[in-house]
Design goal:
By secondary structure, the protein is mainly β. The protein has strands spanning 2-6, 12-15, 32-45, 51-54, 71-73. Strands 1, 2, 3, 4 and 5 form a five-stranded antiparallel sheet that branches. It starts with a strand and ends with a strand.
Length: 74
């Protein structure tokens, strides 16, 4: 299982495969970013507030608040 985040609509889901791109509430297609494997450690982005449970520090690319995520392990 991996964490996926759409930077357009800010949706976060856990899925075994890349989610479908169609029908993004933010308009057009979702822009999914693979944040990494689901795990037991909690990380929160200081820019967009996204909270994920991850095996390792999540990917920093494509923060919905612009630029890169700024992850803090909780």
């Amino acid at each position: 299982m991996k964490n996926y985040h759409c930077k357009k609509c800010k949706t976060h889901i856990k899925s075994a495969s890349r989610p479908a791109v169609f029908n993004c509430p933010g308009g057009g297609h979702h822009q999914w970013t693979d944040l990494g494997e689901v795990g037991s450690d909690n990380y929160q982005c200081g820019k967009c507030g996204l909270l994920v449970q991850s095996k390792n520090r999540p990917s920093v690319i494509d923060c919905s608040s612009g630029g890169h995520h700024q992850w803090t392990k909780l």
